[in-house]
Design goal:
By secondary structure, the chain is an all-alpha fold. The chain contains 16 helices and no strands. It folds into two domains: 73 residues, no CATH class; 187 residues, Hypothetical protein af1432, CATH 1.10.3210. The longest helix has 22 residues. The structure holds fe (ii) ion (2 copies).
């Protein structure tokens, strides 16, 4: 069995998407869905309910009267934040651990993923691009292949790094040369296992090189631009990002002017601070619940 087969074989034992997340994903992508719909899903999950109530009562939000019910909390926090809290506690416990092969310290991958999601959302609003829910999710998960690939990378770092240095190629191209697969492709295979919509799978698979994708889309261009911007800003800077370039064609395709990029960036920085304040001490003990298919 070659290295690529060994790595991809792991995907079949990779946890399937927590049921709660796929339900929330469905609701968040409905244009008419509101806080009440999200509350309906969360209220049957005691651990998630506890996390949401904790967030809603966070001192940071500065409300005087405490909230005691999930529907009250949903109205106070809004659909988007509830979704963020749910995904953080259900999926991201893995992303909060250090990712060895990439030099990504604790919480770095989570912070990077969150910043790309928030930046994507800001760009969609500024550029009047629809389907924000699906783009937000794609952005949040674009680098999840690193969680699996990182474990294998550790043993081959020397070889990969010397190819990067000698041939001046991006890190993910060197991953592919040595391991037979890169983190984008691996992430896409996991997303396929989770039966995500094709838009999300494509965003994950082509986030480093949108111009090579068989199908170009706003979603892919936005995730790519947000990823590049987030790295330039230093959110979750890791070993692999030294050679990463933003595609000028992607920027031109979505008509993102430098003023829009700057605005999206400052919006993201502010929201990052808010979310970090709210979720920083949140327990993630319920992250292990998953259903195997
Ligand atoms: Fe990446
Ligand atoms: Fe990334």
């Amino acid at each position: 069995m070659n290295l690529k087969d060994k790595i991809t074989a792991k995907i079949s034992s990779f946890p399937t998407l927590p049921v709660m997340v796929s339900k929330l994903l469905h609701v968040i992508n409905e244009p008419d869905a509101g806080a009440a719909d999200v509350a309906k899903i969360i209220q049957y999950d005691p651990a998630l309910t506890a996390n949401v109530l904790k967030a809603a009562n966070s001192a940071f939000l500065g409300f005087r009267s405490p909230v005691n019910s999930i529907s009250e909390a949903s109205f106070r926090l809004g659909t988007k934040w509830i979704y963020q809290i749910a995904v953080s506690s259900l999926i991201f416990s893995n992303m909060k651990k250090p990712v060895a092969g990439y030099d990504l310290g604790e919480e770095k991958l989570w912070k990077h993923s969150l910043s790309v999601a928030l930046m994507s959302e800001a760009l969609c609003t500024l550029l009047r691009i629809r389907d924000v829910g699906i783009i937000y999710t794609a952005a949040l998960l674009h680098d999840m292949g690193k969680i699996v690939l990182g474990e294998h990378l550790v043993d081959h770092l020397g070889e990969i790094q010397s190819i990067v240095d000698e041939q001046e190629i991006p890190f993910e191209k060197a991953e592919d040369k040595i391991m037979g697969i890169d983190h984008a492709e691996l992430g896409a295979l996991i997303a396929e296992r989770w039966r995500f919509p094709d838009t999300i799978i494509d965003c994950i698979r082509w986030h480093h090189n949108p111009d090579d994708a068989p199908q170009i889309s706003n979603a892919l261009d936005i995730v790519h631009i947000a990823d590049s911007m987030s790295l330039m800003e230093g959110f979750g800077y890791g070993r692999d990002e030294l050679q990463y370039r933003m595609s000028e064609q992607a920027v031109a395709r979505v008509n993102a002017t430098s003023a829009i990029l700057e605005l999206a960036l400052s919006k993201t920085i502010l929201t990052m601070e808010d979310i970090e304040n709210i979720v920083k001490d949140m327990p993630t003990e319920n992250s292990g619940r998953e259903v195997k298919t």
